[in-house]
Design goal:
Layout (H helix, E strand, L loop, with lengths): L1 E9 L3 H8 L5 H4 L3 E7 L2 E6 L4 E10 L4 E8 L5 E12 L5 E11 L3 H22 L2
Antiparallel strand pairs: 1-7, 2-3, 3-4, 4-5, 5-6, 6-7
Length: 134
């Protein structure tokens, strides 16, 4: 089992950041790799650049605590199995916030390549959030 946890500090309030990232169907509005998404019940289908798709399921959502947890049902091109992840927004320094994106999964193939792929996804999302919220 591999665990990945990454955080980024943002100059916006937790409520402002949560408005951007908190909706399960909003990933396409802030992550550059996701072109669109469709949500039906607790399942979202993410359409990625290049035409591939991921299917994910909402496991838990805590609006007051600014977090949600999801699992991947169909990993598409990602080299992972049993992937479960949480996105959490907390108060940070000087009225800003900290976003933490963490996961656990089994790698498919090379463990370092799987870790690197997930870290790259998180970093791309954080980088774009920084642009959108500064």
């Amino acid at each position: 089992m591999i665990e990945v946890s990454m955080s980024t500090a943002l100059p916006a309030s937790p409520d402002e950041v949560w408005k951007k990232v908190g909706a399960f169907d909003a990933l396409h509005t802030w992550h550059p790799a996701v072109q669109s998404s469709e949500v039906e019940g607790k399942t979202r289908r993410l359409h990625l650049a290049g035409g591939t798709e991921l299917v994910e399921e909402l496991v838990d959502s805590d609006e007051a605590g600014h977090s949600y947890t999801y699992r991947i049902i169909d990993a598409g091109p990602l080299p992972v199995e049993g992937y479960e992840s949480t996105i959490r927004v907390e108060g940070g320094k000087n009225g800003g916030s900290t976003v933490t994106w963490s996961s656990r999964f089994e790698p498919v193939g090379d463990p370092m390549a799987a870790r690197s792929a997930i870290e790259g996804i998180y970093q791309a999302g954080f980088d774009n959030l920084g642009k959108l919220l500064s």
